[in-house]
Amino acid sequence: MERILDVRELSISFGGLRAVDDFSLELKKGELVGLIGPNGAGKTTVFNMLSGIYAPTEGRIFFAAAGTMQDITGLPSHKIARMGIARTFQNIRLLKQRTVLENVLVSFHHSLRYNIVDALFRTGRYYQEEKTMKEEALELLSTFGIADKAEEQAQNLPYGEQRKLEIVRALAVHPSLLLLDEPAAGMNPQETKALMEIINFIHREFDLTVLLIEHDMNLVMNVCQRLIVLDYGKIIAKGLPEEIKANPDVIKAYLGEEV
Ligand SMILES: Nc1ncnc2c1ncn2[C@@H]1O[C@H](COP(=O)(O)OP(=O)(O)OP(=O)(O)O)[C@@H](O)[C@H]1O
């Protein structure tokens, strides 16, 4: 299978702290992989480097865009997003006082096909694009079961639905790689179960590669095809969920936490 992401020996230091140390990872197109590890292990920092929020101190990131592997190391996050990497955040980032639909439409605008002239003069193409975007946004929202909330303010949605809306916003930019940072955080068991189904569904239907950070071991073990385990910034294990569950180094790293 074709590669979509090739991360080579990535490291980053904050002052004296090496938050991520020699992190390498290859993702094939269509994989659904989990990145796990105890609190502070460096998982979100890996996402921040992949999505262009931090430039790594060392190492390179290659990503398949426009038919070739391109070096995206240190590119600004808006460029990386346009190339096809979308992400969600551990702390939900929505336009809280805008409606649910507006939140999705703003994301669509980042991947627009009409130009500024079309927008200024309200050309036919502009109206056509706006209409298509709205239809597509509502379709995405209905996939997640929140289309009936389209006109509500985002801040009024229950927490689980705000998390879903974040994923919809990420999908609206038509990514080929989706990075999900703790999508089940703060969800109750029913919401988490529904989320597992949604992740499986979007992975299948949207032809996506997914890299997922998650502390909910039930979700991780059920959804991910393989796992990478970080501890103190270093990869301590890689493998199938069953192998990881039985790995003594992983159990030791999680000692005191639930595996
Ligand atoms: N901008 C920063 N400046 C200084 N230290 C940072 C910065 N970002 C992360 N760190 C440190 O890097 C380490 C890894 O943090 P990171 O948030 O990546 O861990 P994590 O595995 O995502 O943890 P959690 O599961 O709790 O979200 C931590 O010690 C953190 O304090």
UniProtKB/TrEMBL annotation:
- Read off the PROSITE patterns from this record: ABC_TRANSPORTER_2 (PS50893)
Q: Is Transport set as a keyword in this record?
A: yes
Q: Name one GO molecular function term.
A: ATP binding
Domain spans labelled ABC transporter: 5-257
Q: Which UniProt keywords apply?
A: ATP-binding, Nucleotide-binding, Transport
Q: What PANTHER family does the record tag this protein with?
A: AMINO ACID ABC TRANSPORTER ATP-BINDING PROTEIN, CONSERVED COMPONENT OF ABC TRANSPORTER FOR NATURAL AMINO ACIDS-RELATED
Identify this protein by name.
ABC transporter ATP-binding protein
Q: Which organism is it from?
A: Rarispira pelagica
